[in-house]
Amino acid sequence: MSDYEPSHFVCHVTCPFHEGDDVPSLAIYSNGTAYCFACATYCKVSDIDNINQLIKLSRIKQKPVKEKVKKLYKTLKESDNNISEQLYYKFHKNLSSKHRQYWHKERGLYYRTIDKYLIGWTGQFYSIPIYKNNRPYSLAFRRHELDTISMKYMVLKGTVPILFNNDLLYLDKLWITEGFVDCLTMTQVGFPSVCSIIGSVNGFKKQWAKLFENKQIYILLDNDQAGQIGADNLHALLPNSRVIRVPEQYKDVNEFWVDCCRSNRESYFIDYFNKLQER
Fold first, then answer.
1. How far apart are the first and last CA of the chain?
2. How confident is the model at residue 5 (pLDDT cuts 50, 70, 90)?
3. SS (H, E, C) the chain
4. Strand partners, 193
5. For a designed S-S bond to 227, which of 21, 48, 166, 221 qualifies (C-beta 3.0 to 4.6 A apart)?
6. How far is residue 159's CA from residue 165's CA, in Å, rounded to a whole number?
7. Nearest Cα to Cα of residue 81 among 149, 4, 152, 9
8. Cα(221)–Cα(234) distance, rounded to whole angstroms?
9. In terms of Cα–Cα distance, which of 92, 136, 138, 148 is closest to 116?
């Protein structure tokens, strides 16, 4: 890989189709379409009122983000133009105790999970290594918890979408989650999970369906409208699957897990999903 640039979309803008979109959720794409990851609205850019003003405001807000992204890719180029485990370990070594505490206390990841998956810090973003056939393949990046304007996740340009945790595809029983953190949450407590590295409800590719034939599949996406629609669509693609939902007061499985950890109810979390599996 020699071209380190952010991939696929133009910008995020505040969605005009639902209220309370404090962190802009409507993605604008270069082909003239738009999709909201919060309310699942899909439309043409030309159908949105004041779209030019929305994009203008977004670009003003995104200016400091672009500088951060430039620094990130500069760091990558200075390190090595090839994705390697050496690069993964370098970023993992950069992960400070404060960063580790965030992933452990705020996101509920065990320290052994943080180390096993080599979650790292680039200096601008958290890094999550992506493997394919047990070999280094690409990198995903997650914004810092205090960063409210960057994209939540990015992957390197040119990365062909694959399943994260794909080394688990040999198992007969698998969970499909919406994003990396949910995937790691479920896997670490005994529910082997995979997710698209795109990290969205629309990230699952139709051609992947054959990878799940003759398996017990549980679909566990977010509790919002987009997640519910995405789960139903995925179930239609995987007729051997079951759609599982977290309790309605939680937005996703990681929030459910963190709440259980803070109230010493980890066993309740595990029993909750074990009972759903047995039905």
1. 46
2. very low
3. CCCCCECCEEEEECCCCCCCCCCCCEEEECCCEEEECCCCCEEEHHHCCCHHHHHHHHHHHHHHHHHHHHHHHHHHHHHCCCCCHHHHHHHHHCCCHHHHHHHHHHCCCCHHHHHHCCCEECCCCEEEEEEECCEEEEEEEECCCCCCCCCCEEEECCCCCCEECHHHCCCCEEEEECCHHHHHHHHHCCCCEEEECCCCCCCCCHHHHHHHCCCEEEEECCCCHHHHHHHHHHHHHCCCEEECCCCCCCCCHHHHHHHHHHCCCHHHHHHHHHHHHHC
4. 175
5. 221
6. 16
7. 4
8. 10
9. 92
**Mind listing the pLDDT tens digit for each residue in 59-101?**
655 555 555 555 665 666 555 546 889 999 999 999 999 999 9
- CA 249, chain centre distance (Å): 21
Query: Parallel, antiparallel, or unpaired for β 9-13 and 216-220?
Result: unpaired
Which residue is associated with the tokens 């999550």?
A: 128
| Token representation of residue 139 | 């990198």
Which tens digit of pLDDT belongs to each residue from 18-59?
776 666 777 777 777 887 766 767 788 777 777 777 766 666
Torsion angle, alpha carbons of 67, 61, 4, 134, to 10: 120
Global confidence as pTM:
0.77
Q: Residue type at 159? A: T
Find out whether 197 and 130 touch, Cβ atoms under 8 Å.
yes
- Specify the amino acid at residue 225: Q
